[in-house]
Amino acid sequence: MSESPIVLEAKGITKQFPGVLANDNVNFDLRKGEIHALLGENGAGKSTLMNLLYGLHKPDKGEITVNGKNAIIHSPNDSIELGIGMVHQHFMLIPVFSVAENVMLGDEAVKNGSLDRNSVAKKITDISKQYGLDVDPNALVGTLPVGIQQRVEIVKTLYRNAEIVILDEPTAVLTPQEAEDLFRIMRDLTARGVSIIFITHKLKEVLAVADRITVMRAGRVINTVKPSETDSAQLANMMVGRQVILTVDKQDHEAADEILKVEGITVRDQRDLETVHNVSFSVRGGEVLGIAGVQGNGQTELSEALTGLRSPTSGKVTIDGKDLTGKPPRIITEAGLAHIPEDRQRHGLVLSYSIADNMALCDYYHAPFSSRGVLQPKALDENARKLISAFDVRTPSAFVNAGKLSGGNQQKVIVARELSRNVKLVIANQPTRGLDVGSIEYIHSEIIKMRDRGVAVLLISAELDEIMALSDRIAVMYRGQIVAIVEAKKTTREQLGLWMAGAHVQTA
Ligand SMILES: Nc1ncnc2c1ncn2[C@@H]1O[C@H](COP(=O)(O)OP(=O)(O)OP(=O)(O)O)[C@@H](O)[C@H]1O
Ligand SMILES: [Mg+2]
């Protein structure tokens, strides 16, 4: 790669937010046709640097050059003009619009009134074909799986002739298969001269696809290395500044009585399709039951039905003997449920509330947070301070709005709140999505501590490594059914992979 020219360079970039030096004299460059991975712990400043390159924020200091020329970037329009495209950490698509409408949104030609739907659709089809992206311009975005929505975002950047594409944690929401597809697309793009900045927390991915890797910590660039010169342990160390234990320490443990009992539940999704068929299982106190499965096999609807976000059409759900079938979230929460939801921005947080308020979202109407119907700011603040420090939430204070936190730190606020409550059952859906390796290590150990205290844990995760590391028993979900339940110790990745792909059904 060393011979290809530099297409983008950031020199001495500094950006201060209230109480946080998010970028501290950052130097970064991108070469033509390379995949340059950007790694760093939650809150390190990765998204901030990308937002500066994309014109969403202005740097306090430093300069950016594109193709060797000084670039003045005041808005995304300027960066698009310079050939920079960005796919954000949290997607920006409008679900009720079609693919074509989303792609056109904000485009200059449309603003000038010269909108021609057919030619737009044709251009989208051409781009999809050229890069093997396979998207239908007429599909409604809200009905597409995340993997395809992400392709729409990529098409959108290419439609605007982007030669530099920024992907901010694109694989966090993808299934392993979708991630493989994305890597193929990324390689197709770079083969055609597109340059890519790729942010991820998954060290294996970085080592597999990147040409160069830059590691950031606390707003600074620590180093830029080649995959051939490094390994996972060294990268983890550079990211968090200490040794990270990449395996979970878990002792054998007696499970107690049944806490969660699910009997023959059937659930329909928002399109009224039956996505969970007659599912039964139970989780005992002191046990982690992991649900493995390729995303989209009913796990989302199952967890929604268990946590009150959706009513099952038949069957029964009990927690500690109490029938809670179809009850609203607050009743189930009061019966002793802690819930880490899959969609953090929709179900886990109120982005416009402070961290302190978010950390008491389930209990704010009880003592010590309320007294005779009046909120107690001191108690809220104390609780938040304790959790911020225990869970290492990177923030200048507890008063900052949750929406101002980095993606991973938003997730930490939810996990801290839920894992610190006094509960009988935890339902954790993708608990470590978007978290850095250091935070994953801590949260895994907290989940095991809860299990050791006798709490029942239902873990739903698309990461097979996470399922294998934490579970005592593993259930595999395939096409809305549980096709196998096995003791974790008695199975292998390969066997689970086969069940997940729909091979031969077996229960032990
Ligand atoms: N608009 C904003 N206002 C105030 N502070 C902000 C804003 N955007 C980011 N920050 C702060 O800047 C720091 C860097 O955040 P950034 O989003 O760049 O982190 P990140 O490396 O992308 O982390 P993650 O892996 O969790 O996504 C964080 O402390 C964050 O709280
Ligand atoms: Mg980020």
Classify the fold: give the CATH topology of the largest domain.
Answer: Rossmann fold
Fraction in beta strands = 25-35%
Give helix % range. 25-40%
Q: Largest beta sheet: what is the strand line-up?
A: 6-7-8-3-9-10
Largest sheet: 6 strands, mixed
CATH architecture of the largest domain: 3-Layer(aba) Sandwich
Uncertain regions: pLDDT < 50 for 5+ in a row? Answer: none
Strand tally, please?
22
Bound molecules: adenosine-5'-triphosphate, magnesium ion
N-end to C-end Cα span: 51 Å
Overall number of structural domains: 3
Question: Which overall shape is indicated by the principal axes computed on the Cα atoms?
Answer: globular
Estimated radius of gyration: 23 Å
CATH superfamily of the largest domain: P-loop containing nucleotide triphosphate hydrolases
Structural class: alpha/beta
Mean pLDDT: 90
Tell me the name of the CATH class of the largest domain. Answer: Alpha Beta
Description of the molecule:
This protein is of the alpha/beta class. The protein folds into three domains: 6-240, P-loop containing nucleotide triphosphate hydrolases (Rossmann fold); 246-336 and 423-508, Rossmann fold, CATH 3.40.50; 349-419, no CATH class. It has 18 helices and 22 strands. The strands form five sheets. It has a six-stranded mixed β-sheet with strand order 6-7-8-3-9-10, sandwiched between helices. Strands 16-19-20-13-21-22 form a six-stranded mixed β-sheet, sandwiched between helices. Helix 5 (117-131) packs across helix 6 (146-159). Bound molecules: adenosine-5'-triphosphate and magnesium ion (MG). Magnesium ion binds next to helix 1. Magnesium ion binds at residues 46-47, 89, 168, 406-407.
